[in-house]
Request: fold
Amino acid sequence: MENNKNKYENSEITITFSPRKCIHSANCVKELSEVFRTSVIPWINLEGSTTEKIKSQIKRCPSGALSYCSKSRNKSA
Reply:
């Protein structure tokens, strides 16, 4: 069975997006549009903001479709 997850990473963080969980509230796009972009592929640009701002935005995802794992400390959210 396919998990339909998308991963995006840089040297500090790995972001996982689960499209089947997404309820399309667009909070990520509205609040951090320099990272979460609907009109560009790949739609997540980790160079668009600081890792801390990205983590904070992911924590506000109402569906849990976005999650992250910090590489430096092996912490997940």
